[in-house]
Amino acid sequence: MSGSSTPCPCGLPEPYADCCGRFHSGAASPSTAELLMRSRYSAFAVGDAGYLRRTWHPRTRPRRLTLDPDQVWTRLEIHSRSGGVLFNSHGIVEFSAHYTRAGRVGVLHEHSRFVREDGVWLYFDGTED
To answer: Per the domain annotation, does 10 fall within a domain?
Structure first.
């Protein structure tokens, strides 16, 4: 998914290359917790485990991260956000990530916690409902 006109999996109207793709390629760092969350969802959708590890806080980052190639992420819904902007050091984003696996439809509903360190947002952890 690298075409300049390919829609971004995160649901924003920009093409992938101009939206989350720029974060995945290392050209920028998301400016809010919500943008980081969206870019991480897109990383799951395009299979970019390296980006997921790079944006995971070192205290909670798993040693290994293996993505399931049979799980296809189909849609992201942001339900709420708290903090996570320029003058915050913490943020919470509540979302539902829709997927299919083995012909079955599923939804991951999570409250994700983010921290900003040295001006960079990182995923800390999340609780699923």
So the answer is: no
